[in-house]
Write a structure and sequence with these properties.
The longest helix has 22 residues. It is built from 15 helices and 21 strands. The chain has about 475 residues and is an alpha/beta fold. The protein has a nine-stranded mixed sheet with strand order 5-4-6-7-8-9-10-15-14. Strands 1-13-12-11 form a four-stranded mixed sheet.
């Protein structure tokens, strides 16, 4: 007998992962031209990918790879396959559902089974600038419903709660994930804020329900406390503020809690985060039982997570790029998708707060850590400084290197990047390096600084190959 999703041993998790990957990878490559072409190009046989170690044989992809490949809506969409493709690539469970449909209703039953599993019926924008499309089949929406119930359970919300949400109805996962969280846990939720509307628009909701919890974008959490206090409603039952966004640092978490206590909430009000990476399929929550943040609790039966060194693409035991495989989902399939979000690491140990055994994403979390917007004469453009590694690490004339992101100055608007090199290259060769960096990163570096090898290596040992020197905005600010 297998334990519940959040109490499995590492061995049980590995067995579930092998089961999911073993059927899902061949299905995605059978039904999606993008993934079929990609795995063929990198020389990986989909049928042989049955474990986390097998998955690591597939080179990771970035948003630019997926979005830039063209195709209807998004090349990663697993579009409705033909019956022949289903027979060749579907999982045993899907084939069983099709067989049952045929037995019960003939051709109509078969069609219903195929549409339920494979036809995208819901889309939302994702990615850095909304260019990635995430699609959900009916079965995927059932999964989103289920993960919503799980997130509510991790947060400590139940059918007895009343939730007022100030998350804008913007059509993204942060709204839909919260919507399904409420449905999945059967709590009463008021989604009070329209897209593009100020947080003040939620004031009416506090007069309608005796709120026990609120959900709000991190940047609006303090302002919402003032709005709620001004509603004239009794806030004494509010015991939880769910900040939707990257987990805030301790200072901001305390500021939010203090603002709600001042507004009249329960004295023990908790501030917990709900977040997902760009391209994620469901929201992850912090647990309610720790007394302190122990990380975002994930769903190992529905996704495979890795942390990769942003410069080399190799697996990292510490901080790096959060990399996501949407195992089991059909509307959109993402295989080793490098989100570009920097996390402090993954923790596979038992949570000290709630006792769950699921992997937890550790913070601080920085969204789009290595994909900033640079100010240019044409306006602004997105770059990817991770591309510098492919240029510099592969050049034998470079003894040591480091890429540094810098923020705006009094003389320059926008971010910029600087390349520190230890090399004996001549000026003309450096011009070539600059050109190749421009192609790989998307923009020319602000400077190429030539330094002593010992200095560069010492800086790398302290800060890594890619270092972010930009002033940190308060967590959760736009």
């Amino acid at each position: 007998m297998v334990a519940t999703w959040d109490r499995r041993t590492p061995a049980e998790r590995d067995r579930v992962r092998a089961m999911v990957l073993g059927g899902w990878i061949p299905a995605v490559t059978s039904f999606s031209p993008f993934w079929a072409s990609y795995l063929d190009r990198v020389g990986v046989d989909p049928a042989r990918v049955r474990s986390g170690a097998d998955l690591e044989t597939i080179p990771p992809v970035r948003e630019a790879n997926v979005v830039g490949a063209g195709g209807p809506g998004s090349p990663a969409l697993v579009l409705r396959p033909t019956e022949k493709q289903v027979k060749a690539g579907a999982t045993f469970g899907t084939l069983l559902q099709v067989a049952r449909g045929i037995r019960r209703r003939g051709a109509a039953g078969k069609r219903t089974a195929l549409l339920t599993e494979y036809k995208p019926i819901h889309l939302h924008p994702a990615g850095r600038d909304g260019q990635l499309t995430i699609a959900y089949t009916r079965t995927d929406l059932d999964r989103l419903h289920r993960t919503g119930a799980r997130a509510a359970q991790v947060l400590g919300l139940s059918s007895d709660d009343y939730l007022v949400s100030a998350v804008p109805a913007d059509g993204t996962l942060r709204f839909w994930g919260l919507y399904h969280l409420a449905l999945g846990s059967s709590l009463l939720a008021v989604h009070a804020r329209g897209h593009g509307r100020p947080v003040d628009d939620t004031v009416w909701a506090f007069r309608r329900v005796p709120a026990t919890a609120v959900a709000v974008p991190t940047a609006d959490a303090v302002a919402l406390a003032a709005v709620a206090a001004g509603s004239g409603a009794d806030l004494g039952e509010v015991r939880m503020v769910v900040v939707v966004g990257v987990p805030p640092d301790d200072e901001r978490r305390h500021a939010v809690a203090d603002a709600w206590r001042a507004a009249g909430s329960a004295p023990t009000v908790r501030v917990l985060a709900l977040w997902a990476p760009a391209g994620g399929r469901s929201l992850w929550a912090e647990c309610a039982d720790a007394g302190r943040a122990t990380g975002l609790h994930t769903y190992p039966d529905l996704e495979v997570l890795e942390v990769l060194d942003p410069a080399t693409g190799r697996t990292s035991d510490g901080a790096g790029d959060l990399t996501y495989t949407s195992a089991g989902w059909h509307g959109t399939g993402l295989i080793r998708y490098r989100t570009g979000d920097r996390v402090a690491g993954l923790d596979d140990t038992v949570c000290s707060g709630c006792g769950r055994t699921v992997p937890r994403v550790l913070g601080p979390v920085t969204e789009a850590a290595w994909e900033p917007r640079l100010a240019t004469p044409a306006g602004s453009e997105r770059i990817d400084v991770r591309g510098a590694g492919a240029v510099l690490a592969g050049d034998e004339r470079v003894d040591a290197w480091q890429v540094e992101l810098r923020g705006p100055t009094a003389r320059r608007t926008g971010d910029a990047y600087v390349v520190h090199l230890s090399t004996s290259m001549q000026p003309q060769a450096l011009v070539d390096i600059d050109r190749r960096l421009t192609d790989a990163v998307g923009h020319s570096p602000l400077q190429l600084l030539i330094n002593d090898s010992a200095d560069v290596n010492a800086a790398v040992a302290t800060h890594g190959l890619l270092v972010d020197s930009r002033p940190r905005m308060p967590t959760g600010q736009p």
